[in-house]
Amino acid sequence: MEQLELLMGGFANALTPINLLWVLIGAVLGTAVGVLPGLGSAMAVALLLPVTFSLEPTAAFIMFAGIYFGGLFGDSTSGILLNTPGNSSAMASTFEGHRMAKSGQAAKALATCAIGAFIGGLIATTLVVFFAPTLVKMATVFGPAEYFALAVFAFLAISAVVSESVIRGIAALGIGLALALVGIDGPSGTSRFTLGMPQLFDGISVIVITVGLLALGEVFHIASRIHRDPAATQIEAKGRARLNLADFRKALPAWLRGTAFGAPFGLIPAGGAEVPTFLAYGTEKQLAKRRNDPEFGTTGSIRGLAAPEAAANATAGTAMGALLALGLPTSATAAIMLAAFQQYGMQPGPLLFERSGDLVWALLASLFIGLVILVMINMPFASVWAKLLSIPKHYLYAGITVFSMLGVYAVSSAILDLWLLIAIGLIGFMMRRYNIPLAPVLIAVILGPMAETELRRALAVSEGDLGILVGSPITVTLYAVLAAALVLSAIQHLRHRRANRQAVLVP
Predict the structure, then answer these.
(1) Cα 21 to Cα 53, 68, 266, 369, distances in angstroms
(2) Alpha-carbon distance 450 to 151, whole Å?
(3) What does the pLDDT look like over 4-40, one tens digit per residue?
(4) Taking residues 427-437, what's their average pLDDT?
(5) How far is residue 371's CA from residue 119's CA, in Å, rounded to a whole number?
(6) What interhelical angle do 332-343 and 302-326 show, nearest 10?
(7) Which of 166-180, 222-236, 288-302, 397-411 shows the highest mean pLDDT?
(8) Is the predicted pLDDT of residue 427 greater than 90, yes or no?
(9) What is the distance between the alpha carbons of residues 259 and 120, in angstroms, rounded to a whole number?
(10) Distance between CA 36 and CA 77 in Å, rounded?
(11) Predicted pLDDT of residue 44
């Protein structure tokens, strides 16, 4: 098959000593950042984005492949050992994983994560290899109106459907769109919201926004509560991280069920792996009730950990396919990866496979290589990563602040970017303070300019006729699905509010 030939060519480009070194470095750095509480996989990509700008594109994206999956494993490590997941996608894994750790099975839990990450990522990446060309063909039928509908779908799905509060989600979307509007308006050439500063004519760098919101915002949040929050109890991962045959047989069906949940969600702009991981965890919980599993909810069930972990990595794998083939970031981490492509002057989408085919297939090949390397380094060294959790918070977050400032300044050498970084960090702090989600901001910053451009193109083609926005079966379908999702989401929010009111009224 043609895909296999192209993938073999990608392996030929990726399997060079220097590229293998970049994958290894990316996996190590991604895991190290992901392990640290409050940072996570999205933060790993954001923090290490400036580091790759001195590399040529192929080497940079091969390194990102390691960072991408390495950060996901790190998310779960801090959740299991510290009961503090590095990212919301690891929350479902934390429930049974931390119970296993408290009952003396920390090493087994980490092994379950490592193998689950490998299986989920391997199956999802294989699906991407075989179906990415199909996605590319589908994308070629998209015009300006269809891309605008897709962007609106992503905006509202992430801000209104996935977020706990519709108002907070829409507010986050507004913040992101406001940041995206700063700079020169492409069609007219006039400046917008630049305060007369030439440094802002090119807009606010995505690097400044992501590092400010994720890294500096978290630093401010931790600093404001460092004396209020009790220190979490760390559990050491004693022994080697491995599973015996009986444990493997227990976990394998759960890994496969989790992968089945996660793979489709990577193609949907639903904000990340939160939904499939909780669906996978809920399914294992129901199955545990049927089989009367005494471990589930008490000492920790290996199945309850295996399923959400595989789901998270399967979602990440197919999200890369949606990003490459459609140019659509379906999670915060994918949005930052899209920013990385744009920094190198490339736009993911159907034409990327034609214009930069060698890079795309080398990146897909490096995802497989990265998964293998992650298993090799995380199985024997899981307990080593746990040592990072013992770093005192004031040293840890001071180091993150310095690294963030140096990384942003290294990209642009502009003092203004440092002031913007602090300002956006304070915005991130206030968003955490009032429980406003961060993902809609990142998606709006990335997709906002595209949505505006495609809307103007569509209206230019139709000479101002708004009917073009709902003039094709694709746009009608997207808006219909979005409307149904919004209605269901509104019903769920009303039910939760009613249940909360009744709980307050009943003594």
Answers:
(1) 17, 15, 28, 11
(2) 8
(3) 888 888 888 888 888 888 888 888 888 877 776 556 6
(4) 89
(5) 9
(6) 30
(7) 166-180
(8) yes
(9) 5
(10) 9
(11) 74
Q: Quote the CA–CA distance of 79 and 109 in Å, as a whole number.
A: 11
Residues 49, 212: contact at Cβ < 8 Å?
Answer: no
Torsion of CA 169, 284, 299, 75, to 10 degrees: -40
Contact yes or no for 300/109 (Cβ under 8 A): yes
Task: Name the 3-class secondary structure at 272.
Answer: coil
pTM (two decimals): 0.68
- Tell me, letter by letter, the H, E, C secondary structure of 454-494: HHHHHHHHCCCCHHHHHCCHHHHHHHHHHHHHHHHHHHHHH
Mean pLDDT over the full length of the chain: 79
Separation of alpha carbons 426 and 244, rounded Å? 48
Q: List, in order, residues 6 or more apart from 161 with CB less than 8 Å away.
A: 270, 485, 486, 489
The C-alpha torsion from 104 through 299 and 233 to 399, rounded to 10°, is 80
CA distance 173 to 167: 10
CA atoms within 13 A of residue 293's CA, in its CB half-sphere: 20
Token pair 């990385």: residue = 340
Amino acid of residue 337: M
Q: To which residue do tokens 């961060």 refer? A: 438
What is the rounded average pLDDT of the residues 224-247?
65
Number of Cβ atoms within 10 Å of the Cβ of 238: 10
Dist CA 195 CA 303 (whole Å): 55
506: which DSSP letter? -
Tokens encoding 332 = 């915060």
β-bridge mates for residue 191, sequence order: 184
Tens of pLDDT, residues 438-497? 778 877 887 788 788 888 888 888 888 888 888 888 888 888 888 887 787 777 767 777
